[in-house]
Amino acid sequence: NIECIIWMTILTEITLEQFIKVCPKNSVKLQNNKLPFIEKLLVKRFCTQEKIAKEVGCSRRYIGLIFDGKRNPNIKLATQVCTLTSIHFNELIERIYPKGHPDGSYIFPSSFPINLNENIAAIIGHSFGDGHLNKVFAYSNTSNELIESARIDVKKLPIYNITSNCFEHNGTNIRFSTLVRDILICASGPKGSKVLQKTFVPDWILHGADSIKASFLQSIFDDEACIAIDKNEISLGFSKDSNFTTNLEEFLSNMKIMLESLGIDGITITKGKSYIRKGKQMSTRVLHIYGKTNFIEFEKRIGFSHSEKNTKLLKMINKIKIIKMNSRQRDK
User: What pLDDT, on the 0 to 100 scale, is given for residue 245?
Assistant: First the structure.
């Protein structure tokens, strides 16, 4: 029964209403052929443009420019107009785009609801790794292979004409349209500094299908994991301001739960080195995976898209097989 209640409350899609609430500053391109009809309905109800403007919270001049097709309102104002006229959002709005960038990236209202799937889980995984969600979704890595993988994942989102820019600084950095950030925030991605606040694995991933968990985990392990062939282990370390140590341990415990649900056991979480960063005491916790069977399950159920790490994993598995084979021959 408890499991049923959990599933009933888990987010499975991003609705248009949720997107508008989280991202009210985006602008919209209106269906120009609908504007005379909308104006007529509003004038019939409120008599003057001045009263209409007061109702929706803008100036009379601005509402006049909107009706003339010379201004595109923000999504919040457009929603108010739809409510006042009982017109469905899809009938009035042609597309949604970032404020001030009418010729850049955009989303059609008909794209909603957006299903929360393996692709979005993978991007969320990167946002916990080498990605960052703030003014935009930015991703940085020294591996061009992972940069391209992240670019492909982002292009699968229901955003048209996705804009991005790249620059080199300690690796390749790529920044995407703010609409990408908006979708990831709606999907419970970690907005802002990950080390200076609490972060949580989104419930729709933690309690999601195995394929969703695997996509999320692969992105994090691609970004952050270390394969130590000499120690026969895969390790994954994260640090936070020491004020959030308990949250850090909870985050890694949830990672452990997901790994175990995919048949990967032999997991321990240990303390790493503490250090000072920008005047703040930082705590580190490290998740370790041990054992040939677990390595094989990891390679089969999750794997690395990072070819160098995948090669190391396979090399470690084969090394353990050879050691065990030699020990059996010795014992004869």
Answer: 97
pLDDT at residue number 102: 87
* Among 130, 272, 252, 235, CA closest to 201: 252
Residue 23: band (very low, low, confident or very high) from pLDDT cuts 50, 70, 90: confident
Query: Residue 102's CB: how many other CB atoms inside 10 A?
Result: 13
Cα within 13 Å of Cα(211), Cβ side: 5
Q: Are the C-beta atoms of residues 238 and 251 closer than 8 Å to each other?
A: yes
Q: Are 255 and 248 in contact (CB under 8 A)?
A: no
* pLDDT at residue 100 greater than cutoff 90: no
**Of 157, 178, 176, whose CA–CA distance to 165 is shortest?**
176
Among 144, 126, 256, 234, residue whose Cα is nearest residue 181: 126
Give the model's confidence band at 7: pLDDT under 50 very low, under 70 low, under 90 confident, else very high.
very low
Q: Are 220 and 129 in contact (CB under 8 A)?
A: yes
Closest CA to 11 of 133, 211, 189: 189
Query: Which amino acid is present at 210?
Result: D
Question: SS3 for 74?
Answer: strand
C-alpha dist (Å) from residue 36 to 67, 169, 247: 7, 51, 54
Instruction: Classify 133 as helix, strand or coil.
Output: strand
Residue 324 is predicted with a pLDDT of 54
Whether residue 184 has pLDDT greater than 70:
yes
Q: Which residues neighbour 29 within 8 Å (Cβ) at sequence distance 6 or greater? A: 72, 93, 94, 95, 97, 102, 106
Which pTM does this prediction carry? 0.90
For the chain, the average pLDDT equals 91
